[in-house]
Amino acid sequence: MTGEMQQAKRPVSAALAGPYGHPFHPILVTVPIGAWVASLVFDLASHVVDDPAFLARGSVWLIAVGVLGALAAAMVGLLDLFAIPTGTPAFRTGLVHMSLNLTVTAAYAINFWWRNSGAGPHGAVPAGPLVLSIVGLAALAVSGYLGGKLAYRYGVRVADEATQAAGFRH
C-alpha cells in the first residue's frame, strides 16, 4: 500500500474522528439526512391534513436538528478530509463533497429562518420553503453519492484489504 493510500485511511485524531477503519463521520451524517428527509415528509403532509400547523412546526424543528447535526458531521468530516493527500482525485472529490454539504446546510439554515420570520409556521408549508427543501435534498443526494465514492471507491478512512480479510478467515 502506498504512503498516500495509508495516509487517507488513518485518522488525524482517532479520539475526534474515530478509530482506524471506523470513522465517526458516516454515522453522524445520518442525523441531518434523516431529519431533513422527515422534514420534507412533514412539509408534504401539511398539504393533505385538516390541521397542518403541527406538521409545519415539526418540520421547523426537524430542520433545526438537521442543521445542528450537519455542523457536527462537518467538523468530523473536515478531520477526515485532512487525512487525504492534496492534489489527488480523492481530495478533489472531498472538496466538492464538503462544498455541497456546506451549501445544503446554509440553505437549510436559511429555510429555518424563512419559516420563522413573521408569525412563524401557522398553516401548510408555503411553496418557497417547500421548494428550497426539495432542492436541498437533491443537492444532498449528489453529495451523498460523492461521499459514497470517497469511502467505497477511494477507500478513504476504510480499513485496508489485509485488515478487512481478517473478517473472512475461519
Mean pLDDT metric? 91
Count of DSSP H/I helices:
8
* Span between termini: 25 Å
Return Rg in Å: 19 Å
Secondary structure tally: strands: 0
What structural class do the secondary elements suggest? mainly alpha
Low-confidence stretches: none
Q: What can be said about the biggest beta sheet?
A: none
Along the chain, the helix and strand elements come as HHHHHHHH
What is the beta-strand fraction?
under 5%
Helix percent reads over 70%
User: Which term fits the overall shape?
Assistant: elongated
Oligomer: single chain
Which tags fit this structure?
170 residues, mainly alpha, 8 helices
Give a short overview:
The chain has 170 residues and is mainly α. Helices cover 71% and strands 0% of the residues. It is elongated.
What topology emerges from the helices and strands here?
Elements: H1 3-9, H2 14-17, H3 25-28, H4 30-45, H5 53-82, H6 89-116, H7 127-153, H8 161-165
Describe the structure.
With 170 residues, the chain is an all-alpha fold. Helix content is 71%, strand content 0%. It has helices at residues 3-9, 14-17, 25-28, 30-45, 53-82, 89-116, 127-153, 161-165. α4 runs antiparallel to α5. It is elongated. The protein starts with a helix and ends in a 5-residue tail after the last helix.
